[in-house]
Specification:
With 193 residues, the chain is mainly alpha-helical. It folds into two domains: 2-133, Alpha-Beta Complex (2-enoyl-CoA Hydratase, Chain A, domain 1), CATH 3.90.226.10; 137-183. Helices cover 58% and strands 10% of the residues. It contains ten helices and six strands; from the N terminus they run H-H-E-E-H-E-E-H-H-E-H-E-H-H-H-H. The chain has helices spanning 2-5, 9-28, 44-51, 78-86, 88-97, 103-108, 121-133, 137-151, 155-170, 173-183; strands spanning 34-37, 40-42, 54-58, 62-64, 101-102, 114-116. Strands 1-3-6 form a three-stranded parallel β-sheet. The chain has a three-stranded mixed β-sheet with strand order 2-4-5.
Length: 193
């Protein structure tokens, strides 16, 4: 934490640009990303989770953007990403109070996808990964691209993104083989699952 005490405005700008570039890279990474929280995720840890695609938490997990508690503000995208997940009022409450929310509340407001007992975290992540691995790699990549691009656009622009992506996937040999396999009630050719 000493580095924060030594930040000048110029260093702070460099630091936040670096953090943002890392989190933007993670958010745009072409494969699904999954976060696992067994304890407390506050500040930058929560901002990292906001850049991931899916999050599984233990029942003991707690979440918060606590920067205001020490005189700071979110600097890794939390003030922008959190409202998109939980709504503006809840994001303002979390940021303004600097309090922690429970795993159950995080689930209820859409901050995490699943809550399981701590001893079941690994098994739950493995099951989720196994389900995702069975999907089309191209379809996963392009679905993530459409969702992420739509998140920062209005509905009409987001629908244009989807309409641009869909034809290339629908016309692909991979999709056609998967559709044939579905109708013929068999695994697709080349499947390892």
């Amino acid at each position: 934490m000493n580095y924060i005490l030594e930040l000048t405005p110029a260093r702070a700008r460099t630091y936040t640009r670096f953090v943002r570039s890392v989190l933007d890279y993670i958010e745009a990474y072409p494969k699904p990303t999954i976060g696992v929280v067994g304890g407390v995720a506050v500040g930058g840890a929560l901002e990292l989770l906001l850049a991931l695609d899916l999050v599984i938490a233990s029942t003991e997990a707690r979440f918060g953007l606590t920067e205001l508690n020490v005189g700071l503000v979110p600097g890794g995208g939390g003030s922008q990403r959190l409202p998109r997940f939980v709504g503006f009022r809840k994001a303002k409450e979390m940021i303004f109070t600097g309090g922690l929310i429970s795993a159950q509340e995080a689930l209820d407001i859409g901050l995490v996808n699943r809550v399981v007992p701590k001893e079941a975290l690994t098994e739950e992540v493995e099951k989720l990964c196994e389900r995702i691995k069975q999907k089309s790699p191209t379809g996963l990549k392009l679905s993530k691209e459409a969702i992420n691009q739509g998140l920062y656009r209005n509905l009409r622009e987001g629908l244009r993104v989807e309409n641009r992506i869909y034809p290339s996937v629908a016309a692909s040999s991979e999709a056609k083989e998967r559709i044939r396999a579905f109708f013929e009630k068999r695994k697709e050719k080349g499947s390892t699952t």
